[in-house]
Amino acid sequence: MLNRRATLKTLTASMALGFATLHSAHAADTIKVGILHSLSGTMAISETVLKDVALMTIDEINAKGGVMGKKLEAVVVDPASNWPLFAEKAKQLIDNDKVAVVFGCWTSVSRKSVLPVFEEKNALLFYPVQYEGEELSKNVFYTGAAPNQQAIPAVEYLMSKDGGSAKRFVLLGTDYVYPRTTNKILRAFLKSKGVADADIMEEYTPFGHSDYQTIIANIKKFAAAGKKTAVVSTINGDSNVPFYKELGNAGLSAKDVPVVAFSVGEEELRGVDTKPLVGHLAAWNYFMSIKNPTNAAFIKQWSDYAKAKNIPGHKDKPLTNDPMEATYIGMHMWAQAANKAKSTDVDKVRQAMYGQTFKAPGGFTSTMDKENHHLHKPVFIGEVRADGQFNVVWKTPGPVVADPWSDFIPENKGKKNVPDMKK
Description:
The protein is an alpha/beta fold. It is built from eleven helices and 15 strands. Helix 2 packs parallel to helix 10, helix 3 packs parallel to helix 4 (108-120) and helix 10 packs across helix 11 (346-353).
């Protein structure tokens, strides 16, 4: 009887070991990739689609052989527009899920929340959204725009004859680090162009703010001073819907007071009647309306994927936008770098990332700078059309090299645009 029990115990242990070995072998056949975007809360309007385009890109990379012959496996988490939760979810992805890389965040406050985690654990984050600069980490590759690749060119355009020769400016944003730092840079830039403080109105609203009646009324009053006035909007998330609705309700047309937005693209305008908004502006490094074969293929790929996966909203009206393109570029560059390094080791991939290129849907070849962890990106300014798309009215001749430490911040003097590898 004892021998039978001993044999059964040995057999059970062997089976368990066999299953563990099989599971380990299966896990070794895939490379885990973290997706860290808000799928609920105030930022879900912008971030959910980035999760979806990341999954599409993983499918594309896998169909072409994966990375080092292994399939990529997505690990998706929802930090729910809760900034401290971003850090917790980042730790989960790195420590528990053992991901090789993370693609995610939208707001700078979420990026700032996770940054210490990635630096402490020497993990790698690809951040796909325009931001305020004033940061450079060896553990982040920034595939969105720095201020000199979006904010500064946009305001220069507003001040030009083609842009309406604006003399007064309303700096309107959500109350957190990106709008406040961007506007600090823009104030200094405007001052360098001779714009007086009295000709700048600055106002902030909390995340999720929905009542813009008083603010729009104040803008109309500010614009009544006789000088051409323009609004620079760094409003983020679902607050853009009531802002643009109130803009239309108030009859504030682009001819009267043009608005240029840095966080409003095709996706954010989906739930808005854009007919009263025709002529208002957005500054990005990509628009869906750009005509070229690479973009046509990207749009078709997304359209087919959205319909096949029954993605809400996109299955009937598939839209692409700038952060989607930045996510797509970043994921392909990481895969190229890992294949080049023949490893997913962070230090080896980092070195292989420098100088990586990728033919972007925006029509230019995107290049990862050989030192500063930012993409060289073209700048486009588009006017809102009645159908929610954008007509490009201005663009740079080619990609612009990012300047993470703005020259308009005095304390940046002498700072190098190279991350500190000793951190």
